[in-house]
């Protein structure tokens, strides 16, 4: 086993990743009012803004969302991949983005909650609902498909690039975000080498739009 490890050490799956600015430019437009558009926009913005896995975003429950004058806070009490002894559960903080309202995650979240209020079954407290009746909780596979479709519409080659987690955490340090803030947002411990080894990838600036 040691010989195999030395000849084939674990390597990152991607050596470079896509630039999330391309998707943000696509989403930076007046908000749509139909369920499909708002759903896809919200889940994509959540993944990009928080650096969390789709699995974590799929676990968001309405009772755990709290709004304030500064934005929205979301607690994730459910078990996630990084859960463990002495490890805090994820908490997503989404301040209001007054400089660019079309990309404000907290505002989009509030819009989505109002839009789905009359559609939400009484026994469903998961944030994301499926498009078609009956509107049940959307699975992580469904949310992943929504993000992928949004990426494709923005001109990203989804045959080559898939995980938006890579892109959001690779873009953050280039915008001056401290490594500790990235680790906290993405759910890594302070001494984790995950970011340095796997997630900080060069960004591809141009794509062939299909």
Automatic annotation (TrEMBL):
One of the protein's GO biological processes: DNA integration
Keywords: DNA recombination
Superkingdom field: Eukaryota
Keyword Membrane carried by entry: no
Gene Ontology terms, MF aspect: DNA binding
Tyr recombinase domain boundaries: 22-200
Cross-referenced SUPFAM superfamilies: DNA breaking-rejoining enzymes
Name of protein: Tyr recombinase domain-containing protein
Record organism: Acanthoscelides obtectus (Bean weevil)
């Amino acid at each position: 086993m040691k010989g195999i490890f030395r000849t084939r050490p674990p390597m990152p799956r991607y050596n470079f990743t896509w630039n999330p600015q391309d998707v943000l430019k696509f989403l930076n437009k007046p908000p749509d009012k139909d369920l499909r558009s708002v759903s896809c926009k919200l889940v994509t913005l959540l993944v990009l803004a928080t650096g969390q896995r789709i699995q974590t975003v799929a676990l968001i429950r309405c009772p755990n969302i709290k709004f304030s004058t500064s934005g929205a806070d979301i607690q994730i009490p459910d078990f996630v991949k990084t859960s463990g002894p002495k490890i805090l559960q994820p908490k997503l903080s989404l301040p209001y983005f007054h400089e660019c309202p079309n990309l404000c995650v907290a505002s989009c979240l509030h819009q989505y909650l109002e839009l789905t209020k009359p559609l939400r079954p009484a026994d469903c407290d998961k944030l994301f609902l499926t498009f078609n009746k009956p509107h049940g909780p959307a699975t992580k596979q469904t949310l992943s498909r929504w993000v992928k479709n949004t990426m494709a519409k923005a001109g990203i080659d989804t045959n080559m690039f898939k995980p938006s987690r890579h892109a959001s955490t690779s873009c953050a340090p280039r915008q001056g975000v401290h490594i500790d803030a990235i680790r906290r947002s993405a759910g890594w411990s302070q001494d984790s080498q995950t970011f340095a080894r796997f997630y900080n990838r060069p960004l591809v600036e141009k794509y062939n739009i299909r």
